[in-house]
Amino acid sequence: MKQKVKKSTAGKRGDSVRSDCYFEIELRNSGGIKLDIKSKVESMYGESIKEMILDMSKFFGLKDAKIFCEDYGALPFVMAARFELAVKRLFPQTKKEYLLPIIKQNLYSTKKDQLRRSRLYLPGNEPKFFVNAGLHSPDGIILDLEDSVAPSEKDAAQLLVRNALRSVDFYNAERMVRINQLPKGLDDLKYIIPHNVNVILVPKCESAEQIHLLEKEVDKLKKQFKIKNDIFFMPIIESALGVIKAFEIALASKNNCALAIGLEDYTADIGTQRTNEGGESIFARQMLVNAAKAAGIQAIDTVFSDVADMEALRQSVLEAKSLGFEGKGCIHPRQIQVVHEAFAPTVEEIEKAKKIVLAFEEAEKKGLGVVSLGSKMIDPPVVKREQRTIDLAMLNNKISKDWRKQ
Amino acid sequence: MKLIKNAAGRLVPIEVNGEQQIPFKGVNKFKPTGVKAKPPIRSCTDYPKDGNKVVKDLKTALKKAGLKDGMTISTHHHLRNGDIVTNILFDTIKEMGIKNIRWFPSASFPVHSHLIKYLEDGTIHHIEGSMNGPLGKFTSEGKMKGIGVLRSHGGRYQSIQDGEVHIDIAVIASPTADPFGNATGDRGKSACGLIGFALGDSEYADKVIVVTDNLVPFPCVPWQIQGNNVDYVVEVESLGDPAKIVSGTTEVTKSPDRLLIAEYVAQFLDEAGIMKNGFSFQAGAGGTALAFAIFLKERMKKKNIKARFIRGGSTKYLVQMLEEGLTDYILDGQTFDLEGVRSMRENNGHINTSPFTSYNFHGKGNFASIVDAAVLGATEVDVNFNANVVTHSDGYLLHGIGGWQNCLYSKCTILAIPSFRDRIPVIVDEVTTLCGPGELIDVIATERGLCINPRRKDLLKALKNSSIPIIDIKELKKQIDEICGGVPSKPKVNKAKVVAIIKWVDGTVLDSVFEILK
């Protein structure tokens, strides 16, 4: 390995740091590996931290180096990411990756029409939020490489997100990653495609070509790493141009599962302010719903940013639901339950759905091609929608699994 | 030092600071007999006829009280981290050239790290009470001359009553007092609410000194400490920093994980059928316990349920429940915020209690065992539901026991704790220090769900169809070890040197804390 820089640093340090660590690696010409570890969990994991650092040093071929580690209770996947980063900042050309085993709980795939009521954003370089995020039962978890990560720490977040995809149990939440804006975001893909990501969120999407570009790169990596799982795309529309091109974007790939809207950037783009009433974005939101539905995929609403006002969140979700949105972005775990409850069907909706689903099943039993309820004909999309209403009602404990018997 | 294995399987010394000890025999297995300790007979004619017991200063009071080397001096933690009285007390003792004091506080706070120099120079021989923060570190590193003794609030009363600890001089910081010595904590610029922890001391100590920064003309009513038990009154400029004595307002946790735990506990009480008309519960002032009270309140309102009483450190959240008619009474043990102090003064349903009324082992019955559910914390819990509240997994003493051991006697004891902190597992094979036997602990509520003690088949049955995840504690431990990267090592300690002992509520020795090897 050729080296120019002799010393590198990675990670975080300071009194407020938790569940993270800081590394300094200084290359030397002789003397072997010298470790200096200060850990908050020294008495519990001191030995295993030492072993891990030595193992990583060996893996990356470090022979003579002074390694300083300040640990604030970083979990192994965090420590490995920070160490690898310090090495890669010394040797940017190295292709080696220190991969911890992928945990078996993470080997699941999701469906194109997966329930996506809530998606929880996690800043991609803040490991302390990762481990318990799934406990709050969001439908999806987004490890964010884009706006929440400082430009100087993009490389740190890539490694951390990669390790999280392998090592953190997200308790069956759909595992999403928001990459950077294309084409820069293409560089993020090799850190996520081989590691069981379910959905890629594409920020500031403005054309079908961008999705084609993405698809090509994803297909290449899937082939290279022999990845069989579906990997879906969720383009995020955040500009006036994106809104106008929403339909072609929605149709750009069979892997698109949803269109999402991002209103912070959109309102800035059209030169206005975001209001609680949302009059300024009504066109964009309706356009997006319409484009998504025309392409047969889901429409997902923006995040709600006032984490203290749960009632306003509830109202915002009810409004989104009435416009045709099926999901909402969350920036705090406490929002998830509120979002789920607001998306839950009402008693009237459930009663109607029950009747239609029963009529459909009855018609099927009798071998009838056409379903009717009273004098009304019922089309297949309606049956599908009502079946979803029933599923949602069950998820929210509003009806029991054996509702047909009641 | 000779150690033997007690009934809990823990190694404990049979002699501590020159006094014989009885090893823990099992829960409710040990009952001392004989006669309670008694203070000497006094005659009122020995005291000022005009009722004025005010002396010039603390030094004068200590001199008159006959302060000598090796005496036991007690103080109280009502002023919490705002207390300066204890620090000034020991500055004075040092100035008088007195040595080898046994300090017997009801609890210590980080502000008392001022006393480390007196532990080093031999003014204080050892602490019997709690060793928090810097004092805990000092003790754990084997630097204290004697061996620390940790007791619960109830256990403190027990040790005074059965003669295990004889107090020579009690110094009671009182936010308001009269020259006769009647004293209260519910008013004055340093108001702290209750000063009930000093009750036993005022009754049993040889000499009692009341220190106040708000001297009012006789009578100070209502009094929490009776002047008839008081020898001297000292007026000072200030008892301490009011902002640190009570918080202006106590805040609920913002951590989503702790809120989830709190929500699970409230849901548990509801689904287990504990939350019903006329029930009672205990909640403390920790962020999770406060959040629990708020979630429980929502459920009570929805189902139109009212509690008979709530026990606990009072806060504005409990005060709101009292004022909204969701409980008939607050039985207050200590007051944590200004709303609590106000309510104590104004509301007849807000009742003062002391460790004697709450959970004294030598009482004729125990309030704590009448409570339907107690929500408490812990630093560690092991797979047999044994819990630790005084040391962390690194072996260092960090907290006192408080009323925690006593509250374990409730009908349903719930420890609301995260299953790990950063990379520190909270659910472990075996607790570093045993403070509460698992047979008294019914539920461990974590962010990953509830572990129900297999002894409580009734609770397991009641929660069978709950939406709260119910996990076997061994399985949870396995999950946590996987997340944290393996089974944590035990701290390296010097098994030949006990630095502190943990007393059980009956006065027996439950466990030892050993010197940390660096």
Structure description:
The complex is a heterodimer of chains A (406) and B (518). Chain A has helices spanning 42-59, 76-90, 154-167, 208-224, 240-244, 246-251, 263-269, 282-294, 310-323, 334-343, 347-365, 380-395, and strands at residues 7-11, 21-27, 33-39, 65-71, 118-123, 140-144, 174-178, 199-202, 232-237, 258-261, 298-303, 327-330, 371-373, 376-378. Helix content of chain A is 38%, strand content 18%. Chain A has 406 residues and is an alpha/beta fold. In chain A, helix 2 packs antiparallel against helix 3 (154-167), helix 9 (310-323) packs parallel to helix 10 and helix 11 packs across helix 12 (380-395). Chain A is elongated and about 90 Å long. Chain A contains 12 helices and 14 strands. Chain B is globular, with a radius of gyration of 23 Å. Chain B starts with a strand and ends with a strand. Chain B has 15 helices and 29 strands. Chain B has 2 domains: 55-245, Glutaconate Coenzyme A-transferase (3-Layer(aba) Sandwich), CATH 3.40.1080; 256-487, Glutaconate Coenzyme A-transferase, CATH 3.40.1080. In chain B, helix 3 (116-120) links the parallel strand 7 and strand 8. By secondary structure, chain B is α/β, with parallel strands linked by helices. The chains are: A alpha/beta (406), B alpha/beta (518). Chain A binds chain B through residues 18-19, 40-48, 72-76, 103, 128, 131-132, 135-136, 169, 332-334, 397, and chain B through 256-257, 259-260, 393-395, 421-425, 447-448, 467, 482-486, 488-492.
